[in-house]
Specification:
Blueprint (H helix, E strand, L loop, with lengths): L1 E4 H6 L1 H9 L4 E5 L2 E6 L5 H13 L8 H13 L1
Length: 78
């Protein structure tokens, strides 16, 4: 990962984008701390895998909302 200052980034944006296009990450520093990271985009396969992992981590509690709506509608009638 390359580390450059924000000032250098503003002067060399094209070179930074070329580095990122080749798969490298670039971190932008200002006043001794990281303020941003420029990273290459995920491929479709990587994005789908990340999405699936995120979805799998969600644990649902209670009844499905469709059953809740049906139950509440039936309770209204009586």
């Amino acid at each position: 990962m390359s580390k450059i200052t924000v000032e250098e980034a503003s002067q060399n944006l094209q070179a930074i984008l070329e580095q990122v296009a080749k798969g490298q990450e670039v971190s932008l520093w200002q006043e001794g701390r990281v303020v941003a990271r420029v990273v290459p985009p995920l491929t479709n396969e990587e994005w789908l895998a990340k999405r699936d992992k995120s979805r799998a981590s969600i644990k649902l509690k209670g009844e499905p909302i469709s059953q809740t709506v049906i139950r509440l509608r039936q309770e209204e009638r009586y």
